[in-house]
Amino acid sequence: MIPKDADHQNPAKYRPITCLQTIYKLLTACIAELLHQHIAKNNILAEEQKGCRKSSQGFKEQLIIDSVAMKQAISNRKNISTMYIDYRKAFDSVPHSWLLYILQHYKIHPQIIHFLKNSMQHWKTTLKTIGTSCIETPEIPIRRGIFQGDALSPLWFCLALNPLSQMLNKTNHGYSIINPHKHTTLTHLMYMDDTKLYSNITQSLHRLADITQSFSNDIHMEFGIDKCKTFSVKNGKINRNSYSLISGDTIEPLEPLAAYKYLGFQQARQIHQKETKESLKKKFKHRLNSIFRSQLNSRNMSKAINSYAIPILTYSFGVINWTQGDLIDLQRIINTTLTAHRKHHPRSCVQRMTLSRSDGGRGIIDVLNLHNKQIKCLRQYFYQRSEHSPLHEIVTLADKRFTPLNLADRNTQRNERITEVKEKIASWQQKSLHGRHYHDLQQPHVDKKASNAWLRHGELFPETEAFMLAIQDQVIDTRNFQRHIIRAPNLRTDTCRHCHSSPENIQHITSACRALAQTDYKHRHDQVASIIHQHLALKFKFIQKITPYYKYKPDIILENNNHRIYWDRTIITDKTIHFNRPDITMYDKNNKTTYLIDIAIPNTHNIQSTIAEKLTKYQDLAIELKRQWKAEAIHIVPLVISSTGVIPKSLQRTLDILQVPQHTLYTLQKAVILNTCRLTRKFLTTSSVTSANTIT
């Protein structure tokens, strides 16, 4: 039982959802597909019913038609009378006899009818309450109603109500949507059981209501009187009139200042735009805050925003008139809320927020683009339907800015414009600070796909991901940034607060400060090297299982009958060699092959020169070891990855030489990024600013 609203004490406020066996759901889904094909082929389902109709726009289609009808009547001071019909326990009320009859009436295959008839005889359920004590009822046979929980039931229910649409359309009553050259009569709109009746005058509306009431009584469905309302406008003024049922109950008119929630939106003369926007924004912010208070990793946080928060807004696109400014504000709400929760740096590149993770972004949906795509899709749908449906044709002609679609104007609308990925990347590229990382990724020696692997995996905390993006965007609050970008008036020098020898920019902090060389840089370097060492140790059976790299402590010497591995050990040679201490030295005794492995984590612009330096640096040692160890081959293996996680194309080939698993590349990158973030935070929080450097 799922509660419909906050009133959890009222049993009537619960919606029963049947927990069915998976095999039954699969079977009924197959049957539903056959029914869909039969219905489409024979044009059975009424145009006014949009529930369970494939290739339709569902409730949005109904709300757009409703908006055109209501706004045309109001703007032209025409009379219009409407009635909202709500059924009490609609799914639970339809008799099984009627459900079977409707299948026969629409000539569904006899085998399907036979199966469903036999199946219905075995429909049973149990109710179970869980609390301080568990109460479970015996099996209760289901003699009326239909399941809510499989693919067939909603379509079957729409078929059961379909004769009502045909009966209403055969009358001469309804509301005339008029165009100078054409007109059509709208009697009703339905979405599942939510029904709205339309007419030009009250008497005709009552006639349509009589037909609806008579049909409903015949199939033993009851109106939910408290949710049924009438609304009429006569000569531009609200005309209050009620409708009396055969049972003696009365459908009351909507109060002058009240609104009716129809298909999820509050409306009277028209949808309440301002109130709806405020309500949606409030729900949107609430869901964003719920997501950001969770412990989701970065990728799942982006997915949660896209699938849990943004759909609150998507529901209204095409129905509510969102301006471009409104949509930009909604996107800004995402950014500012992320910033408030420390998951986005306020100066980071905003274009990267809505770029895909494979392109170097965070993969959050662009709200403006999403809105405009939906507008474009809805406009195309109505134009296509207008070629076959008189109702859609007249609605298209009549919609003169009555809805956000403005269907009467077939020219491309401003709210149809889509900002392409290329435009966002171009904006990112053109920025003097933010664009530097993009240019780094475009270098011919850089593996762009591998460099963005950490974003694609999205396993870091959102705070860490945001901080690394800020480092890549070069907007970290360094002295250089404060003095030359922000132009802080109280800062006299941009010299590094630790080494006092170079300008303190982000490149200096991440990989060029002499004061950090033997501490933070070495710690980062050793963690990356330990990943390689551990994989080699596992491969050659020195260890039995992988442990987290930050817990792994390499042994200085590992040796067995086939291999020998040195960790950060000076290689003794007959001849004096200045560079004789690779990070890892591995000797394959069987193949008489030696690997001199050296790790470096430079700034991105130094990747190529660092690789060349490593290859040159150990040439003398390689020559000497080949003679001294009688090795048949010596491989100098430089493992270079930038301090911001940028990976050269040569790194994968280097790892292939060592025959370590492919996923090692991502582990190396992750270790570098985490350590770079750690040392940058530490650097910025341990200041050695003296009074001579600041104005007091």
From TrEMBL:
Domain of life, per lineage: Eukaryota
PROSITE patterns cross-referenced by the UniProt entry: RT_POL
Domain (Reverse transcriptase): residue spans on this chain: 1-251
Any single biological process term in GO: DNA biosynthetic process
CDD domains referenced in this protein's UniProt entry, alphabetically: RT_nLTR_like
Transmembrane segment boundaries: none
SUPFAM superfamilies: DNA/RNA polymerases (SSF56672)
Protein name (database record): Reverse transcriptase domain-containing protein
